[in-house]
Please model this.
Amino acid sequence: MHTEHNGLPLEGVRVVEFSHMVMGPTCGMILADLGAEVIKIEPPGGDKTRNLPGLGIGFFRSFNRNKKSVVLDIHTDEGMETAKALIGQSDVLLENFRPGLMDQLGLGYAALKAEFPELIYVSHKGFLPGPYENRLALDEVVQNMAGLTYMTGPEGRPLRAGTSVNDIMGGMFGAIGVLAALRERERTGQGQEIQSALFENCVLLASQHMQQFQMTGDIPPPFPSRLSAWSVYDTFTVAQGEQLFIGAVSDKQFRVLCEVLARPDLAQDPALATNAQRVAVRPHLLQQLGETLQHHALETLCEKLQAAGLPYAKVVRPDQLVQDDHLLASGGLAPMQTDTGETTQVVLLPLLMGGRRPGVRHPLPRVGEHTDEVLNALNLA
Model:
């Protein structure tokens, strides 16, 4: 089997990916970034994810780097024969299609296991086996089912998280399963089926709230209605309508914040000496701080909070992150040539391994760009 020598942890591992949208491609991207040869199987005309509009426009570029593109029509005998030959020379198969589709095509794990006992087969689904398993799922569906929209929005106004959290995390758990299965295969010589699911993923995100309920008997309130453990832990409006989160989570931090804001009256008020006292009068205290903060310019205030060692954060939009000083200086953004020949900035895995950041090794593949290369190596083309 031909593999590129990249000196990365998964060098020599071949992955064949039957997936679209976000969840499966995220799994494939993680494995590709870590050095695996990931071959993305696209239908004639290409993965429809390439041409999504609106909020989906960035999906393909975000989650398909470092892969090869092979076009196969698996609905034909020839395409199926080629797919099986490729699977036979691969370590891992990834898929994220609707329940039962891969079985109908003859590419389900049950059909492939006898022929390829060493194959590691990863299904990215809406639900793990159980009463819900045949329901169609979307990130927003499971966010509602698993308490995330309830916890995120104000009471009575459930709110979807602002990104595809479960699709992306579901792909991560698929990749974690692959890493464990590769290790286990070294010991047993056998592959296995791995299932990663959106609903169960989101339930894990809600696990601390479930535990809180079991420990206290109280229903956890949505985050906008939560009783904060700290008196100053909020987003304030400063000069010119800019917004800034400030946290002061100890008595010392509260006193330091009062110094930064030139409010010695608050620091010296015996009724505000402890966090418990301040939480008891939190609405009034936040109102007083808000009246002062509206006169402070954002950048100057940030410099003072930074110098004082206090937790703070501007409310940042995603478009502003493209110019983020830390991301640019630390190598968290990297240029990638797109399938149309332009250059775009992509977000790398949030990992340092031995002091290096797994990065972009190849341009984003054009539809079918590697079909001849990969199939010629199979001696089938």
